[in-house]
Amino acid sequence: MQVRFGTNAYDDPMEMLTRLRQTASVTTYKTQFEILSNRIKGFSPAHKLSCFLSGLKDEIRLPVRMLNPQSLNAAFGLAKIQEEYLISAFQAGKEGPKGFTMQNGLLLYKGRMYLRTCDSLKIAILQQVHDGPWGGHSGFLKTLHRVQRDFYWPGLRKDVRKYVRECDTCQRLKHETCNPTGLL
Ligand SMILES: [Zn+2]
């Protein structure tokens, strides 16, 4: 058996960080997380992000992971939003409005993740679905169907139409297709 000199598990910030779990609010958890992570030298952002995600409560971690945040701040923002949903859903009581259900702590509308008015999150979803590696800048209907599979928000259809219409890459591609100057 090996014993490391001069340290025990409780002095090792990395060890403490991997054991850290969210027990109270997301903000409290993030504060504790940062105090510990600031003591670790050469902690890569990707590793830090994955440590942060694994300590979140299940009902918060799962939807946040699904949105694939690229930075700790993005993950923190999404976790806060999800926490808000949970609080408002519990306040609403068991008998929610028609079509709304709670499943594993997630507020769902007709089985899809329900988003209220958070524009940055909607944009992040549209970007991922339309511009992301599997999106390939599909047209309006295909993008709409993909978003609708997992998400719902009031005005979704309109938002998708606007997003696709205003997408720079799509406009450029369309422009190139309409003007095949290279062929002349
Ligand atoms: Zn596009």
What does this protein structure show overall?
The protein is an alpha+beta fold and 184 residues long. The protein has 2 domains: 93 residues; 70 residues. It is built from 9 helices and 4 strands; from the N terminus they run αααααβββααβαα. It has a 4-stranded mixed β-sheet. The longest helix is centred in the middle third of the chain and has 21 residues. It is flat and about 65 Å long. The structure holds zinc ion (ZN). Zinc ion binds next to α9.
Distinct ligand kinds: zinc ion
The residue-averaged pLDDT reads 80
For the record, give the distance between the C-alpha atoms at the N and C termini, rounded to a whole number: 77 Å
| Helical residue percent band | 55-70%
Which structural class is indicated by helix and strand composition? alpha+beta
Task: Please summarize the sheet with the most strands.
Answer: 4 strands, mixed
Estimated share of beta-strand residues: 5-15%
As a whole number of angstroms, the C-alpha radius of gyration is 21 Å
Summarize it.
With 184 residues, the protein is an alpha+beta fold.
Output the keywords.
184 residues, single chain, 2 domains
Write the topology of this structure.
Layout: H1 13-19, H2 26-37, H3 45-55, H4 58-66, H5 72-92, E1 100-103, E2 106-109, E3 112-114, H6 119-131, H7 140-150, E4 151-152, H8 156-166, H9 168-178
Parallel strand pairs: 3-4
Antiparallel strand pairs: 1-2, 2-3
Zinc ion is lined by residues 130, 137, 167, 169-170.
